[in-house]
């Protein structure tokens, strides 16, 4: 199985910022979803060519974020390091599932069929609170969907890290030899909102 993902940059012109292709890495070792990112699959250089949406659309981010995607026979793994120039500005908050609190957040959207009109969203904050939702017809959200997935976050000295595991059973798509999926990464930094 080969998984390729197209990293879309939401709301930013494809002419100014071409949509990159990221090859998901096959996880040959067991990944423990704990927020430490200690597995070898996360040790290479992550994808970090993200751009701002707000406050200056298309500008370089004020804080670096590196992301990785891996897969196993069971599902997709996502990891991110959300760096801070001032780690005291990292804001978390423990909340009930699907409750949006004033916090920093990391969003991972996946469109398993690359339709461009629907996606599954997986959201984690620095304290491990989670949100999941479905996007359909490109503008409507279904917040009642509660997928079965794992996530963990951990605050480190200069960054906070997140790991996510999404079983393939949660993503509806047809069996193929090679998969091309659309993804989008978002990072919300509360102190800069």
From TrEMBL:
CDD domains: CBM9_like_2. Gene3D superfamilies: 2.60.40.1190. This is Carbohydrate-binding domain-containing protein.
